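REQUEST
  id: r-88c1
  op: predict_structure
  target: FecR domain-containing protein
  payload:
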Amino acid sequence: MATVNHEIDRQAADWAVRRDLGELSPEAQAEFDAWLAADIRHLGAYGRAEAVLGRLDRVHSGAIEQVRAYKPAPLWARRRVVMTGSIAAGLAAFGVFGTAIWEAGREQVYATGLGQVREIPLADGSLVVLNTNSKVKVRFTPERREIHLVQGEALFDVAKNKKRPFVVMAGDMQVRAVGTAFTVSMLPQRPIQVLVKEGVVELKRSGPAKGPPVRVKAYTQAIAPADAPIVAAGVAQSKLERTLAWQFGRLAFDNETLQDAVGEFARYSDVRIVVDPAVAKRTVTGLFVSNDPIGFAKAAAAVLNLHVQVSEREVKLSGKPDGAP
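RESPONSE
  id: r-88c1
  status: 200
  body:
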């Protein structure tokens, strides 16, 4: 499995570099689209490769030029460049700006609208990706990096700094990390959820369900109901990749019921999908554009042999009458 994942990462790095250097030809774009759709792991690997390029673009310009000379290198080599002293000068220069913000202790607010996904580079080198209809407040001090998730869902890719813990607050939950990647979601009528992609985080509650801190490792999802203890369970890599597809503007389903899929699309668009209860339990599998409910409804109708009716702000899915083509 490790060899397979390494090869996928190498392919993803090659695609990221080719797209970063310039637009692909129509033939190459078709090849890229086919590769992306062939395996859900390709989507996650490509996203990671893009994140590496994004990080390089946020460091000092001198370091950028040094790294760009090695663009054809595979992802693992590029990661080694990022992690070693070859860009230390750039990171040090970047840190000067970050320290100014920590010392000022100013609070910054970032938000997304319906159907938007936004990447937010932070002064310490961390990255926040906000999902649809989400809001965070960021406040750095010399002792602590503090993020308040006001609503919605966010992915945090945390730069390591043991002297300044990175703490995300959501409701009565505190998620503490040093250097890791994880998501926190706080959605209406759902328990707070934490999904750890890399590293280890510590969960601590202050509300009525307060208990001892819980450490959660990579490939684990923790669910915190309002009036019950935190429950953590392992997550397969394929499911983790599907769950995080939103950061690339996609929703990935694997035998999800129409009813559940429609519920997810409702988070990204004000165009409603109405499903006939008679077909609501039918299942769908695939990768879909998150803010295109009409495209999803038409694709589901074609695969499941359903009738689709589209109006300006509503899409209806229902079973076809007996004998209908």
